[in-house]
Write a structure and sequence with these properties.
The protein is α/β, with parallel strands linked by helices. Helices cover 45% and strands 20% of the residues. Helix 6 crosses helix 7. The structure holds calcium ion.
Length: 240
Amino acid sequence: MEKEKQTILIIEDEDAIAELERDYLEQAGYRVQIAHDGDTGLLRALSEDFSLIILDLMLPGTDGFEVCRGVREKKDLPILMVSAKKDDLDKIRGLGFGADDYITKPFSPSELTARVKAHLARYERLVGSAAHRDSAAGQRNRMVEIRGLRIDKDARRVYVGGEEKIMTNKEFDLLTFLAEHPNRVFTKDELFRAIWDMEAVGEVATVTVHIKKIREKIEVSTSNPQYIETIWGVGYRFKI
Ligand code: CA
């Protein structure tokens, strides 16, 4: 079966930029749709099926941050943020809005298509292949595999370089949660609520302790972690 073209949604209020991006991406073999403001973009992102979103930060009405947050609450797909101001990048990075990557205007066509390709490939490897296996074989045997780390979700087992690492239930849940949302920064509060399922009041230190234990099991060097990265003053993210 011939592989279907992947569709990318560009949310951008400047027509010239949106069209330029579209031309480059179509040349690279993608199908492209354009939304000219944040409200339309968010609505389309939630109601239609896209493989990736290119999201301008400064939009009239609902801005890029809100669109990003709105999409992230409901959907897991790569979001590439575009900004004209270098200063905004710190904000995108620090606040954990869930963007996968960011580029500053002006950017070269090769830079844009290279980033898009890389993120689509990563997502396909991490999420798409597992989902495809599920639906194709009717199995629920889902695996997450990243650079020698393998998480078998059904058996609840973790392997590093083929060697099993014994995790407690919460360590397993926390590692799996982070690995399934790669490149996204989560605060300790968010992680605590996601894994422990209760209001995180004065208990966020639990997250730190669990991250430390997970690192001791999966990292070669806990002072230079390859999987779970500390974002100082914010929280953690799983690197891909
Ligand atoms: Ca704009």
